[in-house]
Amino acid sequence: MATRVISEKGIFELLKLLKKRYEVFAPQKYKSEVVFAPFDKTSKLLLNYKTTILPPKQFFLPPQEVLFAVKRGGAQEPKAQRSFIIFGLNLKDLAGICQLDEIMEKEPADSFYLKRRKRAILIAISEREVGIPPGGDLILEKIGNLYRAITPSQIGRRITNLPVFKEAVLNKKPEPKTKPTKLEMMLLDSELLAKAVEWSRKNYPQIWEKLEKICLGCGICTYVCPLCYCFEMEDQTSLDQSVCTRCRFWSACTLPGFATVAGGHNFRPTLKERYFNWYYHKFVRAYKEFGQAQCVACGRCQKYCPAGIDIEKVLVEIVTEFQKAHPKRDF
Predict the structure, then answer these.
(1) What's the pLDDT score for residue 1?
(2) Quick check: 296 and 103 in contact, CB under 8 A?
(3) 210: which DSSP letter?
(4) CA 54/CA 60 separation, integer angstroms
């Protein structure tokens, strides 16, 4: 059966065509890391990479943004940006965006996120078998020297009508998926993870006491996570007091001031409580609200943690102890 395909050289030509209409961001080398950077004719694309420093949430929830400005005479929102394309997403980051969509659409919906999201086109790329697409607009699945087009959306189908795509009958199959990691296997049973993490607070506190001695409370795990969205807001007034802007910027629930309220009371004064809360939100509260953990096993939190904390090892230990305490129960 014929399918739409594109060559590696054709991908560069595709992005040059799309650049005429959209702002295009693609994975590129930055020192020893990979980042999503604006694409131009001099860009050196990376089609096979593990992960970028920051996840693509940065395009929809910027590290800092002006929500609106109040001047004498009324309020004013920032001008809308032009439509843009994020090219070269890996499947884990694509799944993260799809989960983030569900979170931000839940009432009270985040209108600022949703406005940016509606202007975005998502193009993912995979060196291995895709299976069931998590979403997006276009997925390029590598088969031999070509990339097969998978089009979950109408926009993706329109893109594949561009002349850089050709019809072809592929006799080869894509490379099979890699063996899932322990973390990926645990994420298949979100209910077990939720029960184990919630149980650990009172019944296995030594894990959190141990982590409290290691964790620096810096918040990096939150900043690089595709599914963390803690924020703070601040009103900034111009020197002549003619303009007041409301700004939103990234924060982290592991930071000491995050749970501090008026009067100076802190609901989570210890690092142990704050670090547990991070796990609780991702694996317990998320499961109760959305039916799945807010983690896509991208590995960023472990890679960039200055203390070297490995989320997979932490969860394996918690689940193991939980199952020891409940040997005959079926979860």
Answers:
(1) 64
(2) no
(3) H
(4) 12
- Tell me what pLDDT residue 118 has: 97
Per-residue confidence (pLDDT) for residue 92, from 0 to 100: 97
At residue 199, the pLDDT reads 98
* Domain boundary assignment for the chain: 2-62+72-169, 182-325
Q: Is 137 exposed, middle or buried (CB count within 10 Å of its CB: 0-12, 13-18, 19+)?
A: buried
CA-nearest of 219, 211, 224 to 313 is: 211
The contacts of residue 241 (CB under 8 Å, 6+ apart) are none
pLDDT value at residue 330: 54
Q: At what angle do helices 271-280 and 190-203 cross, to 10 degrees?
A: 160
Query: Would you call 88 exposed, middle or buried from its count of C-beta atoms within 10 A (0-12, 13-18, 19+)?
Result: buried
Q: Which two tokens stand for residue 92?
A: 């884990």
pLDDT of residue 75: 81
- Could you say which residues of the chain have pLDDT below 50? 331
Question: Rounded to an integer, what distance in angstroms lies between the CA atom of residue 91 and that of residue 255?
Answer: 30
Residues 39, 85: Cα–Cα separation, whole Å: 10
Four-CA torsion 252, 253, 256, 258, nearest 10 degrees: 90
User: 122, 100 in Cβ contact below 8 A?
Assistant: no
pLDDT at position 71, please? 87
**What does the pLDDT read at residue 119?**
97
Nearest to 194 by CA among 270, 284, 132, 276: 284
